[in-house]
Amino acid sequence: MRKIVLITGSTAGIGKETAVGIARQPGYLVVLHGRNAAKAQAAVQDVKRQSGNEAVEFILADFSSPTEVRQLAAAFTRRFGRLDVLINNLNRGIPTAEPLSAYGLETHFALNYLASYLLTYRLLPLLKQTPGARIINTTSVAYELARPDLDDLQSEQVPHRLHAYLNSTLFSLYFSLDLARELQPTGITVNTVGQGWGGLTGWLVGPLRKRLDGLASWFRVGSNASAQTSVYLATSPDVAAVTGTYFVGQKPRKLLAIAENRANRARLKAQTERILNALD
């Protein structure tokens, strides 16, 4: 029986590289996610061509809409009936898009954090049916620059979009660490991949980009290395029992104290649930 892998945000970039890497492994059916059917179909054909694996499909949803996230989870469950690996790959900087989604949510918060949170909990019943299921959440090493205000999740008090992006990377890490602890009794593993520039590249131009290039080589992780790390965590028997760990370049990396703040993590979860309940 093939193992089924769902990768969100996988019609381009690191998500697509990850899909190719997993599809090259024997015994995997890879499901891509995107919001544009033509782009998703083209990505499926490209992944098949690069991997030599015909077991590649796609599913559609606009993750700025919690309603569509819920619909995707229900449709995936009906269509596949099994899930071995969930890779929450969304980690995007959106400097030119509208600051608010159709639901009035700040776009980075909605796409990079809230959608993954909601999708994961909606798919947990399916994951719990699969022995050895794995969840991989991607974030960015940029979390180290986040300065969150847990009373201002939508970044209304500091309305700069970079501030919102950085906070979304930290919120994703909070979610991943708490989920790993919650699911430890079930045998489902939850690990996090710290991508490099990722969504931050759209913000870094001109002198600022050159300055960071010179001063912060530690901050850069190539897209190929990030994709390989996700492939490793999704498929390697070496990490079958590893959970609650933050990886950069296939190696565990110690987290900064800001990520270990359990009080902040608990407050984020409580407020997230209130937001989702209000959107039901």
From TrEMBL:
Q: Which domain of life is it from?
A: Bacteria
> Which molecular-function annotations from GO does this UniProt entry contain?
oxidoreductase activity
Q: Respond yes or no to whether keyword Oxidoreductase is given for this record.
A: yes
Give a yes or no for keyword Metal-binding in this entry: no
Q: Keywords for this entry?
A: Oxidoreductase
The entry's protein name is: SDR family NAD(P)-dependent oxidoreductase
Protein's organism:
Rudanella paleaurantiibacter
